[in-house]
Amino acid sequence: MEHVTRLLLFDIDGTLVLSGGAGGRAMRRAFKDVFGFEDGLTSISMAGRTDAWIVSQMLAQHGLPESHTDRQRFHDIYIEYLRTEIAEPHPDKQVLAGVRELLDVLVQRNDVYLALLTGNYRRGAEVKLEHFDLWRYFAAGAYGDNSHDRNGLLWTAMDNVKAAGGPHVRPSETVIIGDTPLDVAVAVAGGARCLGVGTGGYDVDTLLESGADEAVPDLTDLGDVLRRLQLTV
After folding, report:
1. Closest by alpha carbon to 201, among 11, 4, 8?
2. Which H or E run contains 9?
C-alpha cells in the first residue's frame, strides 16, 4: 500500500454520533436483567470511559463481585438491548454535523488511515455505527471490552491497525479525534496529537486546557479540519 502519513483514531459518542442515550438505556436494562438492580448507572459518568470500567463501577456500587460469566451475560444482553434502543426514534439521535462529509473525503485519501479508538464494546461500536451507516469507514480499532485504562488503547489501536494490513506508525504520526478530556488524555499519555471536537459535553476552551493540540466547535468546516489534522487541502 502507499505510504500513509497519518493514522486518524476517532472516538464515537459525542464525536461521530449521538445515540440519544441508547447505550445508557441498554446498560440499565441489561444490569437489571443480570444483577437485579434498577439503578445500575446512578452517579456514574459514562463520558470518555470504557464499557469495561463502567460495568466494574456498576458492580462496585452495589457491592457485587466480579464474575467473568456474569460479565459475559451482561455484555450479550446489553448488545441485544442496544440493537433495540438504537432503532428507537429520539430527538438527540444523529450523525453529528460535518462527520459524513469529512469521512467521505478522508476515506479517498492515500495519506491517512481511518480507525476507531473508543470505550465502547467492539460489538456495541458496530451496532451504533452500522445504524448510521458509518461502520464501513473503519477497518480496525481499539475498544473498551477488557480495558479499564483508556490510555492504553492507543497502543492497542496501532497494533490492531498494523494487524489489519494498515500502516505501522509512531504515536507522533497519529491523531486522536475526540470530544472529552479523557480522549485528550490518551493522546497526551501516548505522545499522539489530538483534535478536540466540541460536540459532546465540553467546549473548545476546556479541550484545549486539557491538552488538545487543536480544537474545533464541530467538524463542519472541512478545510479548517484538514489543516488542523496537518493534511493538505
Report:
1. 11
2. strand 6-10
β-sheet bridge partners, residue 201: none
Scored b (16 or more CB within 10 A) or e, 151-170 reads: eebbeebbebbeeeebbebe
- The residues, any chain, with a CB within 8 Å of residue 155's CB and separated by 6 or more, are 190
* Beta pairing, strands 93-95 & 17-19: antiparallel
The CA-CA-CA angle for residues 130, 136, 139, to 5°, reads 120
Rounded Cα–Cα distance for residues 96 and 18 (Å)? 7
In this structure, how many other beta carbons lie within 10 angstroms of the beta carbon of residue 218?
A: 15
Angle at 178 between CA 173 and CA 180, to 5 degrees: 130
Condensed to tens digits (0 to 9), the pLDDT of residues 151-208 reads: 889 999 999 999 999 999 999 999 999 999 999 999 999 999 999 999 998 999 999 9
Side-by-side strand order, sheet with 141-142: 141-142, 112-117, 6-10, 174-178, 193-197, 214-216
Q: Residue 174, SS3? A: strand
In the chain, how long is the greatest CA-to-CA distance? 54
In the predicted structure, residue 209 carries a pLDDT above the cut 90: yes
In angstroms, the CA 225 to CA 75 distance is: 36
